[in-house]
User: Fold this.
Amino acid sequence: MASLDHLDDEDDFGGDFAEGNAARRSGNKRSFADLDDDEDDIFGSKKVSQKVEETAPGVATGMILTLRESTLFNIFINAAQLQELIRLSSVWTRENKETSISQLLTFKSFTDVCSENCCPVYLFVFFCSLKNCQDELSKCQTKLEDAKSEIQKWHSAFQNESFMPQGATPEPKFVVNYLQILRSSEESLREQLEKAKKKEAAFIVTFAKREQEIAELKSALRDLRAQLKPPSMQARRLLLDPSIHEEFTRLKNLVEEKDKKVKELQDNIAAVSFTPQSKNGKMLMAKCRTLQEENEEIGNQANEGKMHELTMKLALQKSQNTELRSQFEGICKQMEKLTGDVDRSNELVVILQEKLEAKDDEIQRLKNELLQGNANVEEQNELDTDMNANVDNGLNLVEVQTEN
Assistant:
């Protein structure tokens, strides 16, 4: 059948499907009688039926016995059922019945399959595989439920955390950011802990050193106290006779006097034998050098003081010069203003002179008129006096402006 072409060698239980797997069976030698029959049988119908009858029951029985040792086979079948399966498989093989996979999938139980005269071994293996699939499916479902419960547990745990905003779901980015913040804070805390440990170790070392010093000082103090309080026998040994003490002090004073004399004599010898190579000579030369350096420093300071004084005077003179220059510039501006005023006064004098000439001409004309007319002599005299007074006033003004 066409539906059986996709079956593997493992699904071919002992060559039950002779049409599809006849070419793959090997290892069975044919006898000479078979060869003779093959020559007479043109289409090979006898060979096919004989092969199916001889090999199929034995292979199916071996397959069943092999499956009997497996755990699933022992669970679902006993010895009597095994014998029944062997019998049914041999009968089914002789009758050469076939059933497709699609037909097997429509059966609901083992009895339904047996009622359709299918191969018992194939059916049993099919149902065993189906049972395995169901077991795997149940295991996967239990794992899925466990995973869902674990996810719900983590979801509720993150939902109750303070870093989540209210009304928001615990998204992975919030959780990852929070974990990164915690990791960075953990690293900083570890660094602080390492620093604190180092400081603690340093303090412990210093404390141990201080304790060691205190112990040494205590031991030295005990030794000093023991030395300050000698035993009575040792104190008695240290006591001297007064005469011995007096002699000892006299000799001591005598030694001090001799030392003083020796020192004075050595100084005198050094003063007499003064050379630049001697110790005193070197000391005096060094002192002279220091004095010379001090004199040079004092001279430099004096020169610096004079220079400072001169610079101060120069700065004062410069400031005075700038002040005088500013005053001179102010005077120049004032002179320019006065010059302008004088120019304007001169112009005014010229104008007044012109007016005066005009007046003189007018006076001459009036005089001529007076000479011509005698009727208005008195009036003309008054007018003349008035004009003369005006002219005098104008001249006085001109003189005053010129003086200014």
Remarks:
- The chain is about 80% helix and 0% strand.
- Residues 279-366 form one domain.
- The CA atoms of residues 40 and 272 lie 163 Å apart.
- Residues 1-57, 67-77, 93-111, 113-118 have pLDDT under 50 and may be disordered.
